[in-house]
Amino acid sequence: QVQLVESGGGSVQAGGSLRLSCTASGYIYRTRCMGWFRQGPGQEREGVGSISWSGTTSFADSVKGRFTISRDNAKSTVYLQMNDLKPEDTAKYYCAAVSGSCPASLVHNAFSFWGQGTQVTVSS
Question: Which of 11-25, 26-40, 60-74, 107-121 has the weakest average pLDDT?
Fold first, then answer.
């Protein structure tokens, strides 16, 4: 099994930045692709971005140019750097993992393991 623990959430004003971390433990070889998802109040869970084991990233159009993802495989940790945050970025952010290649589409049912989430609140 794989355990994922997110950290770094909080409250920030619009235009600010936050960095989320996700640390994996357990069967690390099952975390070749790591993804970030978010779910706002009354909304469906949506994909934010993903990163492959080698560092190839992909992002949803809504966050391109503002969010970046990086990973430190030695620390089994993935980071989501969020800049120029907007009130519509307010959501609970989840880290996810899958053992294979990153899926072509950021869909939640393509990922096998999930963290508990961390809240991000952006005020205007």
Answer: 26-40
- Which pair of tokens denotes residue 62? 């809504």
Per-residue burial over 1-24, b = 16 or more CB atoms within 10 Å of its CB, e = otherwise: ebebebebbeebeeeeebebbbbb
Q: How far is CA 66 from CA 15, 91, 113, in A?
A: 10, 16, 26
For residues 124 and 40, give the distance between their C-alpha atoms in angstroms, rounded to a whole number: 16
In angstroms, the CA 99 to CA 112 distance is 8
Q: Minimal CA–CA distance to 122: which of 91, 80, 95? A: 91
Beta-carbon count within 10 A of 97 CB: 25
Taking residue 35's Cβ as centre, other Cβ atoms within 10 Å add up to 27
Which residue carries 């994922």 as its tokens?
4
The pLDDT assigned to 34 comes to 96
Q: What confidence score (pLDDT) does residue 3 get?
A: 94
Q: Is the separation of the CB atoms in 11 and 30 below 8 Å?
A: no
Choose among 14, 11, 32, 13: nearest CA to 78: 32
